[in-house]
Design a protein that fits this description.
Number of helices: 11
Radius of gyration: 44 Å
Strand order of the largest sheet: 1-4-5-9-8-7-6
Number of domains: 2
Order of helices and strands: HHHHHEEHEHEEHEEEHEHH
Oligomer: single chain
CATH architecture of the largest domain: 2-Layer Sandwich
Number of strands: 9
Helix content: 40-55%
């Protein structure tokens, strides 16, 4: 049995040296020191030895078992340390690599244009007012000198909710609301940016679009004041070399009224396909506030005068950036939007 024990020790230590994982160590423990392990079987056969040999053999078996336990503990600690190192290496961040930049959105070009317009007009002394997108028939039409039977009130051009409630077709209703709120204070000097709604949908029209309205009411306001404000705006918006041209027109809420053209931004006024050879592009409508509109806002037209103007943000943005289809602003194509 002594020779068997020596052979078992040599075999066990050689086997232990080849264990390279925690699973292999566990299998080794079961093979030699489990309930049916080789060392356990020797201990169970100790009864076959004489009384003199039994304590000597028992001591040797215990020494071998203690040596195996010690080596198993050392190997286990070493293998666990290696596994931790592997895990750390796998989870390590290589800070030498360039970082992945987060995709960050930007201001939509239409709102960027509106911000620029607001900044220009605020620099000219205007304040910014906001109105309701769902309006009453009275403020949207009647207060703008558009009575019930006026041809411009064709319901096919408007989104009606009820007979008296609709989505506003222009930002003009806020003119009356501002005058009612500020009366009798002077001056009234506001711009009104916001969404408006009409039943149009093509390359140059959208059912929902944006306008910026302007209103000035005070004593001794003249048409020349309107021209000066608009000229200053287009110079700041399109460049100091820009010019404007006023053409007589008709709007129910202004009298006299004028369409405002700017020098073609594509050809510099020389004439091209965009301006149809005229050298001019229409950008907005304007005029002196109609006396009836002043009255409905609470002001006496014999004491004060005023001017108003309105422009489409999409129109100005298309000319500023050379965009040929208004619908591009609303399609949310990142390839288009990231250019701005």
């Amino acid at each position: 049995m002594r020779e068997e024990l020596i052979e078992l020790k040599q075999s066990a230590l050689s086997h232990l040296d080849r264990c390279d994982s925690l699973e292999a160590l566990n299998e080794f423990r079961l093979l030699y020191m489990g309930k049916k392990g080789k060392l356990t079987l020797i201990l169970r056969n100790m009864g076959q030895l004489s009384a003199e040999e039994r304590p000597v053999m028992g001591q040797q078996v215990n020494e071998i078992r203690d040596e195996m336990e010690s080596k198993i503990s050392q190997f286990t600690a070493a293998l666990k340390a290696k596994e931790i190192e592997k895990q750390i290496a796998a989870e390590q961040i290589d800070i030498s690599l360039p970082g992945r930049q987060a995709s960050v959105g930007g201001r939509h070009p239409l709102y960027a244009v509106m911000d620029e317009m607001e900044e220009i007009f605020m620099g000219l002394g205007f304040s910014v007012a906001e109105g309701y997108e769902v309006e009453t028939d009275y403020y949207n039409f009647e207060a703008m000198n558009l009575p019930k039977d006026h041809p411009a009130r064709d319901m096919q051009d408007s989104f009606y909710i009820t007979n008296e409630i609709l989505l506003r077709t222009h930002t003009s209703p806020t003119q009356t609301r501002v005058m009612e709120m500020m009366h009798p204070q002077l001056p009234v000097k506001v711009i009104i940016p916001g969404k408006v709604y009409r039943r149009d949908d093509d390359a140059t029209h959208s059912p929902m679009f944006h306008q910026v309205e302007g209103l000035v009411v005070d004593k001794h306001i003249r048409f020349s004041d309107l021209k000066g404000i608009l000229l200053e705006f287009v110079k700041k918006f399109y460049g100091e070399d820009q010019k404007i041209r006023l053409r007589p027109s008709y709007f129910p809420f202004t009298e006299p009224s004028a369409e405002v053209d700017i020098c073609c931004v594509m050809c510099g006024g020389k004439g091209c396909r965009t301006c149809k050879g005229t050298g001019w592009l229409e950008v907005l409508g304007s005029g002196m506030v109609h006396p009836r509109v002043l009255e409905m806002g609470g002001y006496d037209p014999s004491e004060v005068t005023g001017f108003a103007f309105g422009m489409g943000v999409e129109r100005l943005a298309m000319l500023k950036y050379g965009v040929d289809d208004l619908r591009l602003f609303f399609e949310n194509d990142i390839r288009f939007l990231r250019q701005f």
